[in-house]
Model the fold of this input.
Amino acid sequence: MSPIDLKALIDKTEALPALPGVAAQALAICNNPRATNVELAGVISMDQSLVAGILRLANSAYYGFSRKVSTVHDAIVLLGFHNIRSLVLASSVKSQIDKPLQGYSLAKGEMWKHSLICAMTARDIAKRVKFPAPEEAFVAGLLHDIGKVVLNIHVGNLYQEILDKITTEKIPFTVAEDEILGISHAEIGARVGEKWNLPKDLVDAIGNHHLTDEKLTPQMLTAIIHVADAICLMLGIGLGGDGLMYPLDEKAVKMLGLDDKTIEEILLGVTDYLQEHEKLNW
Ligand SMILES: [Fe+2]
Ligand SMILES: [Fe+2]
Done:
């Protein structure tokens, strides 16, 4: 398929993944300031795999509750709508992100691990730099590479061509992807975000997370996702080609005001998340 055909195909929104119905309803409730805990628990309870995923994460060390969270209602009371929104998204996109992505040489589970650890890291960075919506950073981190799920089936043999182009021309991954496929996973990810009605700054963060457009001054959320992603790739979490020619952008580091000591602390945090991920086995 030529790049032109691929772009046309992806322009049809049906080609983009849909957000599962219950998750879409739950997110709408989370965004409604007048909604009640009972309403939200009622919708989430319609999907048992969503319930299981939320309770699993709510009981993990990420949240550090001393007592067991045993019902969705409990989880909502303890965590609040913002955190529950993140858990609903994480649980409902897991099956789509968890798949092996042969097109990007990522085995089953690798992309999920990369996305979840990046989401946790992004939230940590957001809190450190006093970004007012750390849960937005979690969601953007979780979804930043979702475009790969869409492109995966089209990449096929072209993956080697992309890698060769990066090596010979010394250009970033998304630029090579764009030149060979006609579109990058970041741009497709932004389209998925639009389809799911995510806020604009979140869509921008997904679309620009590689910061390949040097003329663009990144939004704060984009800079956070870039740093979290680059750190995960530096540590070899879900490498899959993305990490080639993908240095940590100095502009983003400066914009967030991260010094060496803070970056070291963030790296240590990632080690904890990785251990927790192993324990969670999810
Ligand atoms: Fe990426
Ligand atoms: Fe990534």
Observations:
- The first helix runs from residue 3 to 11.
- The pocket of fe (ii) ion (ligand 2) is lined by residues 114, 118, 144-145, 229, 242 (CB under 6 Å).
- The chain has one domain: 3-280.
